[in-house]
Amino acid sequence: MSPNPPRTPALASRLPNVGTTIFTVMSALATEHQAVNLGQGFPDFGCDPALLDAVTRAMQAGHNQYPPMPGVPALRQAMADKMLALYGLRCDPATEITVTAGATQAILTALLAVVHPGDEVIVLEPCYDSYVPNIELAGGVPVRVPLTPGTFRPDFDRIAAAMTPRTRAIVINSPHNPSGTVWSA
Ligand SMILES: Cc1ncc(COP(=O)(O)O)c(C=O)c1O
Fold first, then answer.
1. Is the model's pLDDT at 145 over the cut of 60?
2. Which atom of ligand 1 is nearest to the CA of 41?
3. How big is the chain by its Cα radius of gyration, in Å?
4. Cα four-point dihedral sign 40, 28, 179, 160
């Protein structure tokens, strides 16, 4: 008797070269060797009870509906206030803040929105592991520029040399992951 035909057809991945993430690899090793896991952000403290109370109150008050697409206005205002208080940055909560489910989604969404097929996007290596696959998903071409060995500072001459008329974006982050380097103005 022949076996049932496969219910899921073979799917061709759009990211065939993306393997297991370094986070999964390091966390599995830490578990195996019972080592302190510095490879991923695992809080070793509980949730602040004030936050648990606030979430409970919000749910009991019926705040469980779809928000406006850019995010709940009170949250966007609170984020604008925080940007001003911590970084001196004035952001318009109505037009300059969009709430996302974390940075990974924000970066992918931003790249999909602005990168057209064939556009080049500069990343400074070593870089966070989602950047290059995100650029490739958008149809862009990642252009890898190494940070200065040892100090992990941007090498502006190399960045300038990597820029072409096809350069659409440069992905930076500060403090830099994985080195922790903080950029100056
Ligand atoms: C540089 C960098 N980009 C993106 C992310 C992903 O952030 P999230 O967990 O909010 O998706 C991280 C997380 O550590 C990060 O360090």
1. yes
2. 14
3. 21
4. negative
Of 99, 104, 111, best ligand 1 pocket probe by most atoms within 8 Å of the beta carbon = 104
Look up the pTM and report it: 0.84
Q: How many CB atoms lie within 10 A of CB 85?
A: 9
**Phi, psi (deg, nearest 5) at residue 166:** -90, -5
Query: Does 6 have pLDDT greater than 80?
Result: no
Number of Cβ within 10 Å of residue 158's Cβ equals 14
The H-assigned helical ranges of 12-166 are: 22-33, 49-60, 73-87, 103-114, 131-137, 156-162
- How would residue 106 be classed by pLDDT, with cut points 50, 70 and 90? very high
CA distances from 76 to 34, 47, 92, 123 (A): 41, 23, 9, 29
- Cβ(103) – ligand 1 distance below 6 Å: yes
- Residue 3 reports pLDDT greater than 70: no
